[in-house]
Structures are given as C-alpha cells and as structure tokens.
Amino acid sequence: MNPFFRKTVLGVAGLAFTGGVFAGPIAAHADAPVDAKPVAAVQADKADTSKLIPHGVQGAQSRIDLNDEQVANAKAIIAATKKAGLPERAAVISIATSLQESKLENLGHLGDQNDHDSLGLFQQRPSSGWGSPEQITNPEYATLAFLKGLKQVDGWQDMPLTVAAQTVQVSAYPDAYAQWEQQAADIVAQYWNS
Prior knowledge:
By secondary structure, the protein is mainly alpha-helical. Helices cover 54% and strands 0% of the residues.
C-alpha cells in the first residue's frame, strides 16, 4: 500500500474514531433530561475584554473603592452607553472620564471649590452648552451628552483613551484620564450585563 495513502486512511479513521468517542456519549444521552442552566449564555454576553482596553493601559493606574452610589452611577453610564448603541469601549472611556472628573459622584455646585459652573458626573458646564444644571446632573442625560461628543471624534475607537476623553472634555489636565482605564474596564466587565 502507498505510504501516503496509508497515512491518509489511518488519519481519517482516527478522526472518525475520535469524533465517535466525543459525539458518542452526547448522542447516547440525547433523550436524558438536562438540568439546563444558562451558564453559556451568560458568559457569551460578558464584555469582551480585548475590546475594553485594545491598546493596553497608559502609565500608572489609579483605583478607588466604590460605594453604592458610585456603582449605581457606573451602571447608569453603562445603560446609557447601551441605549446610545455604542460598544463596551465607549463605556470604558465614559467611566474613566467620570472617575477623573468626579470619582463617579454626581456633584452639584461645590461653592468656592467649584470649577466655574461644572456639575455632575462629567463636570459638564451649562455655560458651555452641555445642558441645564438639572440635565447635566441626570446621569443618563450627562452620559448621552458625553457620548454625543465622543461620536463626533473621528476615529475615537482607535485612539488612546486619554486622547478620546480629552477631545470631548477639553480639560486642563489632558493626560489624567489614562490613569483610570483599568478600573473603568474592570467596572464595564463586571456590570455590562447586569
């Protein structure tokens, strides 16, 4: 017998055997009741971590412990991102921006400590056209306003987080957003589907 032909026949036989071994037990129990748990569906819906930080984090990372209010605000940012039809990366940029601007706290007017008329999760300013004080202290509205600005940035999906955030926010500290990228990605990974 030709050696090449023999190897081919043995290879096909091996595949058939292996397929039978793996398919056999499943096929043998096809009629058996199954304790159905949506484990695979839940895992399939989790945020894709390769999309959360596509270029790796820049520089030293900061992290804070979040209280219930901060977690609720992070969840509101994620919900608004989904409502806008944007991917997980937009939520990461939004949460990192809010972590830098307000530590995910929906800040009202801070008196002498206020930066002009900045308010809310993103420290948006009514005088700069972001909306009324009532609007920009509404987490959904504030997030949708931020995302509207983000969508107007050509190529935001491929930019480093700090460049995308700075283009929308026009901060006096443009590199400060980068330090929150890992925590923002962790938050999105944890809450994207909850």
